[in-house]
């Protein structure tokens, strides 16, 4: 059986850290926590779970903090989490099983990350991340903000899920780091440009975000998943800025970087539906329902577009076309994911009435 060190970097996480550590403490052999300047009771809370609590002077560099934390681990493998992540019971058991069966020749293990949820508990945002890595390989984190762990060798994709339990609201921290770097004249990598654009978008700076996404795409470099995402986000920005030609062009452009994604197809459906081009809208929504969700995607997937959204929109399309049987079918498909959604319930009542009238 291999041994595992859990590594976390924290700052003012007293409201979340206990849940994180409780969920995983019995599945790891060592816990290393690096504090980057807490002013609450985070350090005292961490001390209840481990003696390995260290200070790191914050230098606006997440990769540096994580690399320092990794350097303190002593086990065969390193598992990293954030303080507002947890392992649900089923996933804790899977980790214990993996630990007992893992072939030491494996260099890294990816896990599914459930990052956001809707009001019904459905996952709305998910991706894969490399979570468990062989310590002897010395894998390093890169990037001051939105850092990534570079791995190589034999990588295994597991079905273990890390669940994100957000406890903090939107912060300007990451945007400030980017702005300071830009102010110092630092040259941004393609990845930096993409994540800088994301921060600008999150803070409502539409035109500036669009410019940075366009700069990222013009490099012709970077990860295909980021390029697809940039195109989709550009389409949303151009819709907001009332630039429909650029909105549509951005969605077509997303197909340059890989197979069609449900996120793009549903936006194309919405584009045509808003212009009363119902048949074209239905085509794109139907395509979204037929696509197979990528299983090993390391980029964010907006799960709603792969599940209930296209069905609910097809209900609208078929209802407008007078095909109430198909509309009812797709409404019920959406209801499998959101049974208590008021739109689903309203549609059901309306369509059942229309179908009864047709049967008379």
TrEMBL record:
It holds the Pfam family Glycos_transf_2. It comes from the Bacteria. Residues 6-126 form the Glycosyltransferase 2-like domain. Transmembrane segments: none annotated. This is Glycosyltransferase family 2 protein. It comes from Paenibacillus soyae.
């Amino acid at each position: 059986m291999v041994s595992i060190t859990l590594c976390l970097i924290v700052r003012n996480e007293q409201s979340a850290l206990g849940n994180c550590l409780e969920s995983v403490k019995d599945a790891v052999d060592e816990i290393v926590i690096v504090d980057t300047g807490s002013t609450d009771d985070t350090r005292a809370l961490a001390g209840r779970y481990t003696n390995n609590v260290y200070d790191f002077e914050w230098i606006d560099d997440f990769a540096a903090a994580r690399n320092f934390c990794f350097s303190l681990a002593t086990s065969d493998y390193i598992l990293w989490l954030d303080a507002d992540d947890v392992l649900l019971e089923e996933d804790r058991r899977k980790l214990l099983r993996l630990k007992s069966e893992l072939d030491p020749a494996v260099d890294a293990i990816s896990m599914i990350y459930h990052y956001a949820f809707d009001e019904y508990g459905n996952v709305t945002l998910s991706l894969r991340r490399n979570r468990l890595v062989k310590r002897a390989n010395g894998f390093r984190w890169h990037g001051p903000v939105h850092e990534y762990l570079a791995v190589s060798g034999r990588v295994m994709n597991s079905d273990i899920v890390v669940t994100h339990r957000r406890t903090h609201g939107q912060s300007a921290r990451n945007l400030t780091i980017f702005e300071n770097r830009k102010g110092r004249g630092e040259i941004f990598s393609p990845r930096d440009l993409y994540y800088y654009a994301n921060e600008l978008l999150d803070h409502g700076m539409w035109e500036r975000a669009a410019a940075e996404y366009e700069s990222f795409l013009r490099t012709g470099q970077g990860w295909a998943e980021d390029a697809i995402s940039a195109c989709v986000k550009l389409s949303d920005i151009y819709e907001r800025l009332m630039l429909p030609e650029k909105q549509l062009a951005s969605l077509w452009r997303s197909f340059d970087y890989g197979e069609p994604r449900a996120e793009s197809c549903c936006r194309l459906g919405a584009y045509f539906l808003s212009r009363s081009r119902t048949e074209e809208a239905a085509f794109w929504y139907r395509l979204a329902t037929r696509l197979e969700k990528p299983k090993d995607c390391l980029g964010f997937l907006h799960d709603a577009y792969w599940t209930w959204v296209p069905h609910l929109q097809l209900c609208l399309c078929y209802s407008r076309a007078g095909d109430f049987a198909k509309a009812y079918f797709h409404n019920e498909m959406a209801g499998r994911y959101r049974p208590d959604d008021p739109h689903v319930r309203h549609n059901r009542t309306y369509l059942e009435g229309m179908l009864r009238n047709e049967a008379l």
